[in-house]
Fold these 4 entries.
Entry 1:
Amino acid sequence: MKKLLVMVALGAAVVSAAAVAQGGGQFMQRDQTRQEAQQRSDMMFQMLDANHDGTVTRAEADQALAQFQASRGAENGGRGGRLQAMITQAFGTSQSLTLQQFEAQSLARFDAADLNHDGVVTAAERQQARAQQPAPQAAAPPQTTPAKPQ
């Protein structure tokens, strides 16, 4: 039952993340207050913290991702990739995150999207914030030095 709840909650979070990430798409998430963003972040943290010790490890997050992907099977439609990107971004080079760190990252993303700083992120602000984000850059090919002729 616990696994089912985790998977359902992760699915809801991924759908929410997909709505935010979708550019001008068919579905736009409703306006969201800073308090709602904080509550969503706290809920996601609790879902990822499998042993409820107040710290989410990369292993716990990876396990939740694997459960989500297994539950979605072939019909995943790329949502697991977005969740993987979210996890990678959240952890960076760290192996664990506290609730305070996780929440601070979430609220920083909210504040960056709240372009008029009124404490509410609207669909229009989300779209404008996405347009201002730099495009992901492909990894540069390794530099090779030409061999000297002999």
Entry 2:
Amino acid sequence: MSQVQQLYRLQQIDTEISAKKQRLKDVIQLQRETTELQQARQRAANAALALRNNDAQLEDLNLEVGGVIDKARRSEQHLYSGKVTNPKELSDLEHELQALGRRRAALEDDILEAMILVEDAQSENRDALTSLQSIEASWEQSQANLKVEQNDLALTLHGLLGRRQQTAVTVPEKLLVDYDALRTRKNGLAVVALEEHRCMGCHVRLPENKVAQAERGDLVTCSGCGRILAPHIS
């Protein structure tokens, strides 16, 4: 196998290494919580807070109306106990009972509204939890798959790096340095196939003399993109 063919083999390995490294980077990035999951968590938290607040408001209203009822009962007992004979005091008690009645009616209206809010909050809380559980289950499954892929990629990269090392030692040091420098300049692609007189890097058609040199195993670069040309690679 010629030196150019060895370089092409090395290029194939390096290309695969770059692809696997990029995929590994993507896989690690994908293991972060998604925006969808974060939004579902926030919705569930907001729903739970709203439910607690509405429950607390309803409880406060029930306590207040209970206090009003107790106070009205005591005032009514006092009014009809026969112990109050002063007309003004009787009038004050009657006015107080009327005021307590109005307050009770207002509180009972507020309680009905609060009960509706609690029911709505309970419904939203259930929906938010159901949605969160579904999204979490899907995300956790994807994470399990990604973990498996991450491990597979790590093993594959380990093998590829070993193959690269074995292939690189077959290439003269000076040529290897030139290859690495060219690969840096050419976005990772230093050696490309020559097929039907065309460079597979930039698709420029090469003159016959360059094609003949390349087919003899000489180190020939493309006149279009400057990459090394490797013909008849199996």
Entry 3:
Amino acid sequence: MLAGMSSGAESREVPVDVLPPVPKEEIQAVPNRVPFEGLNTFYHPASGVVILALDWLIFGTDLFTGFLALPAMCVVGFLVTFPLVLAIQQRWSRDKLPNALGKAFLGAFMVGLPFPITGTLLGAAILALSGLPHHPVEAVKRLVSQATAK
């Protein structure tokens, strides 16, 4: 007998409720939700943010100067932007590989241009193609509404 139990205690059976297994047809997989799902734009908004942010970081801040710095930064900008935009377009926009490759190449080419595109017509085109609002307050409102909708 177990220690601590009195010798006069009777053992009782405890009923155990077991539920039957749920059929596989009734199990519904939760779809992966992506930011800005259902937005029909050329670029996913995250791709637009990546393109403009990297372009500003590389060329807008003038961190690197010198004769060889400009060509090197053009190549670095292209090489960093291409896989990021490719991944975003494939995973979040669900583009097929040829479409995602074309969009990634175009975005990386824009970042690789040897001047900042953020304040130019090219930057405005990236904003328009990715569905990003031109005003920062609107962007924050859109991001908050997407986060609270989940």
Entry 4:
Amino acid sequence: MYGILTVALSLNLLIGARLFFSSAQAAEKDSAYPSLQLFSVVMERVRKDYVDGQKLTYQDLVYGALKGMLNTLDPHSEFMEPEKYKELQSDTQGTFGGLGIVIAMKDGYITVVAPMEDTPGFRAGILSGDRILKIDDRNTDKLGLPEAVKTLRGEPGTEVTITTFRPSSNQMHDYKLTRSMINIDMVKDINGKKEFPLGQNKIGYVRLVQFGEKTSDDLETAIKKLRAQGMQAMILDLRWNPGGLLDQAVDVCEKFLPRGELVVTTEGRNPAQNSTKRAMGHGDELHNLPLVVLVNQGSASASEIVAGCLQDLKRAIVLGEKTFGKGSVQSILPLNDGSALRLTTAKYYTPSHKVIHEEGITPDIVVPMSDDEEHDIILQRVPGGLESLEEKDRERVAGARDIQLERAQDLLKGINLFAQRAPLPDQRVAKGEKVAAAK
């Protein structure tokens, strides 16, 4: 009996020891120290044996390694040298010179998320989904996203040539563009202005171009103007809106939701990155009037947060085409030497916990538009766009139909007609009580 027990204990100790050493070896394989030792050996070998090694500094090699490390993670993470970090800080504080196109890395290509309205890229007819193959005859397949952004930007008045490929039509396009200062009104009416006239059937229309610092305040002004005219339904147009500030997306949702409603959550590996954003405004400023949200492939980031929230909570009908699918959170982490990391630390989730990143928002009602139709609608919106065309093209563009907008208008007209003819439940109860009292 004791012999059997001794053998069993010995066997358990042997198995436990093997498991311990196996896990220790696995941990050692993923240990930082051997990897850092390997890194230092390679760095010294490069300094010693590389043909132009005398031109390299340790900082050059470390910066290069950090760029490579961050670029292997995802298209949105990057290491920023001090100069690049200063550029980022300047961009968030004011305007900059460029083409007005928002780009991202998608399927291995530098891809246009959306052209910003009233900018050189927008006026030239660049569309969401276009792949940028060349910038000034330089192939972009060897450029990272940060380098592409830096190359496209520049002093206002300078020129840049880009070559694009449009997957939907298999066509290449060359554009010679002049950079300008990018400074746009974020909220516009159907005529591209800030007057907000009420449309037929008392349907209001507001277009959010981007989510900047004053988008929410400007939207509130627009809603007040439309309600003063007797608005009975509203269209919120988020097409070609590349996104912007998260807090503004939350503030926009607040305009249409009761206080306390969940808007969006962020979730990451670090619990500090987890957050819950709720509507903290004064309640639904439309007082539950019917609402349609228009989206397309150019709707990204903050636009997708708004569309996904209002769709999940049944506050709006989302109509158009599937959105871009950019729903990750990039945190800026400054470093001691003035450089910084832009690191993807979390993802956005709609109130029903649908992930936005690489999935996008699928509309309740899908209404597709061709590239040519979108291009003509964009030209209609651009100040001076019609005047810049030849007569035959001008006539075509002037008569182009925005079928997504028309479908939204028809839908809201039908909802309002039904509401007028079918009394609400409380109205029917009141009516029945009067009949009973008369009997």
